[in-house]
Amino acid sequence: MLLLVGTVVLLLALRQSLLVILLGAAAVVHLVWGRGQLDYIIEDMWISLDKELILSIPMFVLCGGVMTRGTTARRLIDIAAALTRHLPGGLAVACVLSCGVFAAISGSSIVTMLAIGTVMYPAMKEANYPTRFSLGLIMAGGTLGIIIPPSIPLILYGLVTETSITDLFIGGVGPGLLLLAVFALYAMWINRNMATLPFSWPILRQALRDGIWAMMMPAILLGGIYSGYFSAIEAAAVSLIYALFIEIYIHKEMKFAQVYDVVLDASKLGGTLFPLLAVALSLNLVLTEHRVPAMAVQIVQGYISSPLAFMLLCNGLLLIVGCLMTSGEAILIFAPLLAPLALSYGYDKVLFGIIMIVNLEIGFLTPPVGLNLLVAMSTFKQKFGELIIAAAPFVVLMLGCLAVVAWQPWIAMALVGH
Q1: In sequence order, what DSSP letters do the residues of 5-64 get, joined into one string?
Q2: What pTM does this model have?
Q3: 122: number of CA atoms within 13 Å, CB side?
Q4: What confidence tens digit (pLDDT) does each residue in 34-64 have?
């Protein structure tokens, strides 16, 4: 154990990447607890990646890239704006609704924020919405991409904890809608004195006519998953084919030549994620074989007897982790250890997965590694400190929603198993 901790601390002090740190930890585990042969790491990595479900990740990423380069996001925004123009802060509410619908297609926080934000930020500035509010709303709306299914972090959690992806997707619906509703109500309250526009059926009909193909996508995708017609990987394949079809042949806003750039961007993400996933899963195999999670359960239960105390401690830990790691890294490292602990305290693995994702969702808006803050800084040309201030009210709202989901588990679990 001292050798393992020492190796991790040394690699951290040398400022090595997470991949190198995980490889070092895996090497120590294989030498000390395993069979003493490092070549078993490669064998375990191959076994870990030999899962069809992993193919769904690059396909959802490709789908999001296709729609970002096309006009799907703009057409969804037009429909949302037509529906909310008569409400106070109608354009802000349209931004939230657009983020929610796009999240149900892309599965990514950053893709959602960029696709909706690059259109909505100039529009909200032109409509005289406060700059800080607009930036905060767009960054917070982007985080819906990792809780509203299909969600790439939920797929990762399901992989490393052997939890049903379909149940996780269904469990994400309630908390996702709760966050969406809270953001929309806050937007209406903050902008309650802004002038509104009268509702117009002709404008809505035109928006629906232009965006009907884009609106059908989340209906087909989520309807197929929840009805049992699609598995997660089949849903990813259908969404990718559908996105390519409507952007190239229906909207005609994308050329075949642009598909190469989309594939290249997705490959870069895969080149970052899959080595981490392989090493983390191989490490999990050895730890599980030697009952390390079970020993951790016994140790923790010796100090913490109350499920409530465990959940409070766990939430505090995950909020700190979310500030320091990306969601993928945090899931790969902490989910295999924390999920069995949560199960021992009576928390369903699906419920704990949703709570973990909401915690990490907040991490997208908190320094120093808040990805939405970093991406917004370069995209919208704003200072990092200004973006932290802009995100602060939404972080408070998300903490409140996290507390509600942990206090009332039915919000996540009501539809699971039905």
Answers
A1: HHHHHHHHHTT--HHHHHHHHHHHHHHHTS-S-THHHHHHHHHHH--GGGGHHHHHHHHH
A2: 0.83
A3: 6
A4: 666 666 677 777 776 777 777 777 888 788 7
How many CB atoms neighbour CB 42 within 10 A? Answer: 11
Residues 153-192: pLDDT tens digits? 898 899 888 898 889 988 999 999 999 999 999 999 999 8
E-strand stretches of 253-410: none
Give the C-alpha separation, 372 to 366, whole Å: 9
Q: Kindly state the tokens that stand for 263.
A: 């594939």
**CA distances from residue 409 to 87, 99, 187, 306 in whole angstroms, order as listed:** 31, 24, 26, 17
Q: Cis peptide leading into 368, omega within 30 of 0?
A: yes
Nearest of 341, 361, 366, 416 to residue 108 by alpha carbon: 361
Candidates 416, 359, 342, 361; CA nearest to 165 is 416
Of how many residues is the chain composed? 418
Nearest to 177 by CA among 418, 417, 414, 7: 414
- How many Å separate Cα 50 from the centre of its chain? 23
In whole angstroms, give the CA distance from residue 44 to residue 23.
Answer: 12
Amino acid in position 352? F
Taking the chain, what is the end-to-end CA distance rounded to the nearest angstrom?
44
